[in-house]
Amino acid sequence: MSDVEIKFLGRGDAFGRGGRLQSCVLVRYSRGQFLIDCGASALIGMNRYGVDPNDINMIFISHLHGGHCGGIPFLLIASQLLYKRMEPLLIAGPPGMKEWIFQAMEIFFPGSSRVNRKFPLEIIEFKERYTEVLRNVATTPYPNLHHGDSSFSLRIECDGKVIAYSSDTEWTEALCDAAAAADMFIAEAYFYDKKIKGHMDYLTLIHNYPDTRAKRLMLIHMSSEMLATPEKIECEYAEDGLTVKI
Ligand SMILES: [Zn+2]
Ligand SMILES: [Zn+2]
Question: What is the reported pTM?
Fold first, then answer.
């Protein structure tokens, strides 16, 4: 079984706290590379950490918040104009993904959604708990407790390894399905113990984590309060640029 490599191109929240880039995780497996989320700073992360956007063949989006998908318009336009992409790109995300992409492109760069693209773009919209198998990667979205409709955690299986990604959510039993016996559970820990609607605090996560039976936990999406007290964190947490193998 070959290793799967995970590179954190951005592990911050939407607001740049601690100077961290927005949510964007690169996964390298035997058939290529894909992104989990693509925050507005995704291209900065790729440039900073030596990732060629043309090597990415799929993007999986957890929910339609700019800190998680705002990089798509920039990536599509850069792929066309700057990187001269020819290879197909597949984007899979929540219901409304297709409309969101074209609206965002029109807002940021009017007319850009209608240009004759030189690379095929396929957009797939997830259905809750339905597994999409795309280029040997099986992705299953589970419902999150977050703001707005259609916000998912993702269970992603490739090369015999399982990556679970909580994205933004309060603790929900669905995370036990998403992260069941996962090789790596990438989870948000927004605050240490403060409970706010739509997000998860560290103590709640640590309390419930054993129920998932996941093998490894990696924290992301931390607030200034969490970033200021690393001595209180007793598990791994990602920095921008961190690369791990599972
Ligand atoms: Zn977020
Ligand atoms: Zn969000």
Answer: 0.97
